[in-house]
């Protein structure tokens, strides 16, 4: 086997891992919100984009410390989550059509708002960490390593939150049986608002990180959204652990397919694979019960 | 059992149609006013100056939105500059140019609708733009209705520009220009490059532009490593493509067309993956943008054939003025120009109108295609393109070549990026 | 003998909801199927009507093996059923509920239906008149034009029966027809069931309310997915095992 | 989905009078629509009307599928499929555009049937998601066919239905096609087929217990819906001369369901009104250039928060309000 091929294979494996962790990072907030609260946030991509732009703005225009900027972006977008819960999700809970309408409205406003206000300058948040990390013939930029680590650790944190903390348990209670939860004296609105805050914060975090890895465009959220939905359905509804494996599958496909087929065909093949998987496991890989 | 409440539904249908009626009545009103008319304005010149309306087709919303909003600003500046130099003189009468802008929404059918609006609603006889492959929606329409069409860009896809679209001109350097410029420089200054890999966005242009590029590369005596690598413009991560490029084992990679995001990302990923191969970027996006995306440490050993940018010696006084006005407009003293993709055609149009001394598109197109040299914002340009497009209607002019080392762009030379 | 269940078993992940059930139902009788909560009565119904597939065993209806057939096929063969929970189309009116339950006899093909041929119109007219009759039978005629979801619980249950009758069943499975009803609703329901069985329809009742026994010719008591005893209502009332089985269990509706 | 009206014409005399009012109404609307080219001479405005007609067919067919409780997020992709099939047939194969139109509709229907057999097992949310994925995949697949479909740049200079450049014949032909399609869809919905679809939507368990085959009727719904959306796609391609994937992408898919939802999913007239309003209002404000999208967003929010059952619910709301005023007795109910 020629050396080039071996390099290609190794590179693909590395890419698959890193890309998967990126997708896990992206999908975490969305899947969390849907699996735990049964809320389908179609505007996740737009929120991710807003988070990226806020972080960019603070880090470059204001000249703030990068990590601080990220934290502020996360906080700000988290607050936006309360707004989302109150005006987008609570009034239309369970009606997918109306949720789509509201979310499209929000997406339109956010994307065009950014597009109009920012004007055309290629915008990139400066990298959080510099340099390249070499092991033998494999070499990755530290940025990607950081994204990888953050993605995985966030997943663990969210799992801990759901299973160990009081709020996490309350969320699951609300999701499983609303009336029961109310009878138990759980403040349902508080719980769901909390869930939305967490979800949006996670989206913003992903946005800030990816914004430094890729460049920012007002429409960066659109393609992300499809990926996120793929991961949600593939992972199975009602299972956060599913995200890990779904993310791995989608990431690997995205890392390997472009090497075999060119350009847009990758997406088609990918969808085909995903649909086939779902036809054999309609509940997704780790799905428990159907909701929504 | 009650029948469906159709009377009520019908009232709402009527209501809706009434609303539509009103709205479109509004449209017609605007149409009559904005049609190419004669509103007199008083200026320094002796006789009153009439205004002549020119249509500008831009993608103001959608994924090209922010970009084209900027280029439309440039176009407006160009119009002001033409008017301040006395406008255009046709039949001894001075005319000020006036732009009517329509939005193509970054979709082909949106662009078709906008073109329809310009032609049938705003009654313009000259259309500038649109961007990228959206020309394919306009060229045919203009041919049908005998409208002069000066495209702002061209990706060489069918319907954009060929022997059948005689009313269509390419008024601005397109992907083919940037490529020829880069190739010529590469040939002259990098003798040790033998094999090159080709990468370009897989937006359907590979069978056309890609094929042409491949031929030209081989004609220049290079061997193309592997097939053309088509990347997905909207990919989240470009490292797979980078891996693919490195795996070809070529001495250099040429990224044809495409925008800053994919090109910069691929550059970054190629470097991160540990390869230091020569990286040639030939597209309108300026070097500083590519550096922004790729990062300073990663952007090294790069040759970039691009539009004019801050730091390259200005080819003409007009361009200097253009830059100053643009910076004034956006209120940023060192904002780079975008690409002039609409400003350049307008500037040329002024030249052509003066030469032709008529507003008749048929006359204009003959004059335009028979001009040996034309005045562009980049200085004198030539008209060619018979070999590439089948018609001699593409304007080409000198383009700046830049090398980048450790994130520092260094201007090298002006290449006469001729369209064969 | 209209229905014969032999060795019917259903396991939900290890534990057996129904195991080795053998029941035979004779023509025109009213068979009571009683047992405490979670005894597997509803599961048995779902097995008969093909909503869930049995692990093993067979269901034979009129000498025809219907084990594991799709629910709508079984319905076509003439087994009607009602449901414990939300037994109707909530957004149809009561009459529409019954009309739209006429799928099999008469059935007009797509062509007739679309082109509104005389055949289709004849069928629909017939269906309308039949539906009104059925509503008379179950005593819902006066509320026929009101939305089903706005009806009281008892009416909804009766509507369930009416819908089941609309497919002209030879065998009718009633899943807790009187659960959660008030006394006079119960009396009406029992009246209606009696009238129905007089039309020659074989009926199987699931109930864990002993009161229903008085209209049954025969009663089967099941617990933990198995048949405990079988006999006339009188025998059952005295049977010590039944008493025992019932002591532990409350009388609220099943899951 | 709330269901109104009767499945059969109740055989009492005054239904004739009942049916008369809508009949007159229809006549009025059709006359109005037929007169439009005489009112508006501008080809551009006719262009807008023609596109509206096409989208109305698409939206109405989408709603028809939705009556069975399936949310076909792939519908815009089917519009694209129809458009591409008829474009390829009439341009590359050289069939007559009219024939291509019909074939496009049939192909779209066949694909719809083919996918709806495996998908019929899936319940609401999963169906929506998988059809979304299928739509994306289908579009990307079409896009990646290289020279045949011209990738992202799409197909240009598609043979047109009429040689004349005027848009008036298009308007009348498409108006006729739209009316026919809507009539057929309305017939399907008001006969037993439509009722069975609504029954399945309300409870597939109950409907199967009375002998309604869920799979059969879901497939029927998808087949009919896809046929008409394919037809609309073919009309679009042969009228618009140029098509590209970006016209049918994810955003388009979601906008399509918005046309339906804003108009109102519960009523046949919903998608018609929704499309007319949502497609034409932004056109009216197109003078705002890059600020136009905010207008459509504003319309969305206004409608969804004011009348969540869509625009068709306005008259009903007004009426109930009026009745409340009249009858002060039951103010506490509702």
Low-pLDDT ranges of chain B = 1-12, 18-45
Quickly count the domains of chain B: 2
Main pleated sheet of chain A: 2 strands, antiparallel
Beta strand count of chain A: 2
Number of DSSP strands of chain B? 17
Helix count, DSSP H or I runs of 4 or more residues of chain B: 13
- Report the β-strand fraction of chain A as a percent range: under 5%
Q: Gyration radius of chain A, to the nearest Å?
A: 19 Å
The SS-based structural class of chain B is alpha/beta
Please identify which CATH superfamily of the largest domain in chain B we are dealing with.
Answer: Response regulator
Largest interface, with counts of residues having CB < 8 Å to the other chain, equals: B-D, 64 and 68 residues
Work out the oligomeric state of the chains in this entry: heterotetramer
CATH hierarchy class name of the largest domain in chain B? Alpha Beta
CATH topology of the largest domain in chain B: Rossmann fold
- Mean pLDDT of chain B, as a whole number? 83
Major sheet characteristics of chain B: 8 strands, mixed
The CATH architecture assignment of the largest domain in chain B turns out to be 3-Layer(aba) Sandwich
Low-confidence stretches of chain A: none
What brief labels describe this structure?
heterotetramer, C: 255 residues, alpha/beta, Rossmann fold, 6-stranded mixed sheet, 4-stranded antiparallel sheet, disordered C terminus, D: 334 residues, mainly alpha
Descriptive overview:
- The complex is a heterotetramer of chains A (292), B (420), C (255) and D (334).
- In chain A, 74% of the residues lie in helices and 3% in strands.
- Chain A has 292 residues and is an all-alpha fold.
- Chain A has a domain at 24-219.
- Chain A has a two-stranded antiparallel ribbon.
- In chain A, strand 1 (132-135) and strand 2 form a beta hairpin.
- In chain A, helix 5 runs antiparallel to helix 8 and helix 9 packs across helix 10 (241-260).
- The mean pLDDT of chain A is 85.
- Chain B folds into 2 domains: 50-172 and 340-377, Response regulator (Rossmann fold); 176-311 and 401-416, Response regulator (Rossmann fold), CATH 3.40.50.
- Chain B has helices at 6-34, 65-84, 108-121, 136-145, 175-189, 206-219, 239-247, 260-272, 287-294, 317-330, 343-356, 361-370, 386-389, and strands at residues 50-58, 88-90, 93-103, 126-128, 148-151, 168-170, 195-201, 223-224, 229-231, 252-256, 278-282, 302-305, 373-376, 379-384, 394-396, 398-405, 408-416.
- Chain D has a domain at 41-248.
- Helices cover 71% and strands 0% of the residues of chain D.
- Chain D is built from 13 helices and no strands.
- Chain D is globular, with a radius of gyration of 21 Å.
- The model of chain D is unreliable at 1-15 and 330-334 (pLDDT under 50).
- At the B-D interface, helix 1, strand 3, helix 3 and helix 4 of B face helix 1, helix 2, helix 11 and helix 13 of D.
